[in-house]
Write a structure and sequence with these properties.
Blueprint (H helix, E strand, L loop, with lengths): L6 H14 L4 H11 L6 E2 L4 E2 L4 E3 L4 E3 L4 E2 L4 E5 L4 E4 L4 E2 L4 E5 L2 E4 L4 E2 L4 E4 L2 E4 L4 E2 L4 E4 L2 E2 L13 E2 L4 E3 L4 E2 L4 E2 L4 E2 L4 E2 L4 E2 L7 E5 L2 E6 L10
Parallel strand pairs: 1-4, 2-5, 3-6, 4-7, 5-8, 6-9, 7-10, 8-11, 9-12, 10-13, 11-14, 12-15, 13-18, 14-19, 15-20, 18-21, 19-22, 20-23, 22-24
Antiparallel strand pairs: 16-17, 24-25
Amino acid sequence: MIGRPRLGALLYYEIITGIFGNLPGMLGYWLRRRLYPTILKSCGKNLIIGRNVTIRGGMKIRLGSDVSIDDNVVIDARGKNGCIVIERGTLISRNTILRARNATIIIGKGSDIGTNCILATDSKLKVGKNVLIAAYSYLCAGGNHNYDRSDIPIIQQGFISKGGVIIEDDVWIGSHTMIMDGVCICKGSIIGTHSLVNIDIPEGSIAYGKPAVRQSWRPGFGDESND
């Protein structure tokens, strides 16, 4: 729960989150700004933490300055090698889950993660700077179950990964989009709503569909004469 095996640290975590985690109003925001950095690996200035935010593995979580985390968010850095980094000026909207299981999630400066999103990885998940991810999107970076054997249940066969997910800078991902393991969405691209992305998307693309494919280029990108 806290990222280090100390009873005193666990009790401190329980006090901070139990007493102040659901405290309403400006007093609640002010106290969480003061106290929640003490249960994290590191934290910059001007942190905003909403109500009912769940922090797991806090000693493996690093937040930059001016980070805003809305109500009911879960930030879960589990396992010995779990690590989550949220850089300066990023917004994590309500009900979103960030889960790194013995893996790393990095969210770049100035990005905006919408409501009810899931960003989960067992390998690596990197979101660049100034990225927009709209509501109800799912970034599945690893965690695919192996199923080669028939003599034991799938749940006991471990995981396979295609290398995680990379979202480069200045990308906009529409709502209800699913991005599969092994995908890189290159700089400046736009992914339309309700898309399934299972292949790399070139820089400056406008792509959508199930599966998503490039439909056109953004102005200033690509060879528009060939479209």
